[in-house]
Design a protein that fits this description.
This protein has 6 helices and 9 strands; from the N terminus they run ααββαβαβαββαβββ. By secondary structure, it is α/β, with parallel strands linked by helices. Bound molecules: S-adenosyl-L-homocysteine.
């Protein structure tokens, strides 16, 4: 089976376990083959539903987790999305596909090597609406604010204040927040500047936000 066929199988699997539901998001997964974001030495495992190493102890998340987070974020055409933790660029590319040419994704990465790697990977899927910035995601990215939505792909003790400020009222943040079990996946809707609606999607495991 070639790699693209393996991607189709992974998508089928993610649908069958209930992680993928929305047609637009399913299409994005089909058009964003995960093997293009995987280190050469792990290519054999590109379509296993497991996290894999990227560089310097960091990882590309498990496809199941990426699917759950993308569905929770529900990125729509034309939206501007902030991601914290670009890593391989896979999650950012998926969101880039969902928001389309009228939308934009700003993804922030602390490790300069991963900034280079994610830029190169994102080029492979020909996305021009995804921009990788080398910076500390805890500061958000004021230059492009406000954002319709924000996704944090590293474990945080709390959602950084600057990030909350840079999301529009009516916007959404999806983030794994530390608790005693590892991390709980929170979906936070910003109702007003000081009013939030919280949903807990359960336990997940992430590398820490530094
Ligand atoms: N979304 C990625 C996986 C992210 S793993 C993907 O699709 O592959 C978490 C990433 O967050 C790591 O690459 C790590 O280097 C980065 N990171 C950790 N702390 C950070 C911070 N303060 N600002 C920006 N990136 C950070």
């Amino acid at each position: 089976m070639n790699l693209l066929e393996q991607n189709e199988l992974l998508v089928k699997h993610l649908i069958s376990v209930g992680a993928l539901k929305t047609p637009r998001i399913i299409e994005a997964f089909k058009k964003t083959p995960r093997h293009l974001f995987i280190r050469k030495d792990y290519l054999n495992h590109a379509y296993d539903d497991i996290p894999l190493p990227t560089y310097n102890g960091q990882t590309i998340s498990q496809p199941y987790t990426v699917a759950i987070m993308t569905e929770a974020l529900n990125p729509k055409p034309g939206e501007k999305v902030l991601e914290i933790g670009a890593g391989s660029g896979y999650q950012a590319a998926l969101i880039g596909k969902c928001v389309g040419v009228k939308g934009k994704v700003i993804t922030i990465e602390l490790e300069s090597d991963l900034v280079e790697i994610s830029r190169k990977n994102i080029k492979k899927v020909k996305l021009k609406n995804v921009i990788v910035i080398c910076s500390d995601g805890k500061l958000g990215y004021l230059k492009e604010a406000p954002y319709d939505k924000c996704i944090i792909t590293a474990a945080c003790d709390e959602i950084p204040k600057k990030v909350i400020e840079q999301v529009k009222i009516g916007g959404r943040i999806v983030a794994p927040v530390n608790d005693f079990l590892g991390q709980k996946m929170l979906v936070i809707d910003k109702i007003s500047d000081n009013e939030f609606k919280k949903q807990d999607l359960g336990s997940f495991v992430f590398v820490p936000l530094r």
